[in-house]
Amino acid sequence: MISAVRNGIKQLIMKGVIVYKSKYGATTQYSNWLADELGLPLVKAEEFDSKSLSDFDFVILASSIYIGKWLLRDWVKQNADVLKSKKLFFVMVCGTPSSDFKEQERLANTNIPSSLAKNSNVMFLRGRVVIKKLSLMDKLALRFASSMVNDPLKKKEMTEGYDEVSRANMVDIIKKVRAYLQAMNVQKAESNLV
Ligand SMILES: Cc1cc2nc3c(=O)[nH]c(=O)nc-3n(C[C@H](O)[C@H](O)[C@H](O)COP(=O)(O)O)c2cc1C
């Protein structure tokens, strides 16, 4: 009896994983907080054995954006066939302000394969730039990009850096993942009753 109840409970648990890629630590920090809040395993994309993707029902894919490219873009493309049967949460850590919906839409459209877009959520988190920690190439790239920008606030952030990494930013993501888990658990519980 107890094992039957245990099996029932086991069936209700959706298995998830956080796969992430970060360059200077902002995404690593967010991914650690997410893993902590949601009780999920956390794996760097470069250390993740893609064959084990089939073990999971949902995947949170978190990485940052450099010159318009989301760092997990190629990894996601390579694994698109397996990922298309999963519920996906795309997390883009970037400098783009949360009010710039047009740029967010552009970043989502250019970085997420259309075959994966429909069963997914895309979320943006403001990250950080610490100028003195950047590689020479990144410093130069940012300096060049800042010379093309007119908005004084954006220019200041690009030349002096900024830090908006905060646990409080994750409220929406956590809500969305929990809402999904709740909906799936209700669905599974109902199908178990039939
Ligand atoms: C060289 C460089 C280029 C960047 N390009 C973009 C960009 O195109 N769009 C954007 O929204 N943010 C951009 N950012 C901001 C980063 O996405 C942000 O700093 C993020 O927090 C980095 O996260 P990470 O430390 O996990 O790599 C850029 C930052 C640097 C240093």
Report on this model:
This protein is of the alpha/beta class and 194 residues long. The chain folds into two domains: 156 residues, Rossmann fold (3-Layer(aba) Sandwich); 32 residues, no CATH class. It is built from nine helices and eight strands. Strand 1, helix 2 and strand 2 form a beta-alpha-beta unit. The longest helix has 23 residues. It is elongated, with a radius of gyration of 19 Å. The structure holds flavin mononucleotide. The site of flavin mononucleotide (FMN) has 22 residues, from helix 2, strand 3, strand 5, strand 7 and helix 7.
Notable characteristics:
single chain, 194 residues, alpha/beta, Rossmann fold, 2 domains, 6-stranded mixed β-sheet, two-stranded antiparallel sheet, 8 strands, 20% strand, binds flavin mononucleotide
Summed up:
By secondary structure, the protein is of the alpha/beta class.
Count the DSSP helices: 9
Distance between the termini: 19 Å
Cα-atom radius of gyration: 19 Å
Strand tally, please? 8
Task: Give me the secondary-structure topology.
Blueprint: H1 2-12, E1 16-21, H2 26-38, E2 42-44, E3 58-66, E4 69-70, H3 73-78, H4 80-83, E5 87-94, H5 101-111, H6 114-117, E6 120-126, E7 128-129, H7 136-147, H8 152-160, E8 162-163, H9 171-193
Parallel strand pairs: 1-2, 1-3, 3-5, 5-6
Antiparallel strand pairs: 3-4, 7-8
The structure holds flavin mononucleotide.
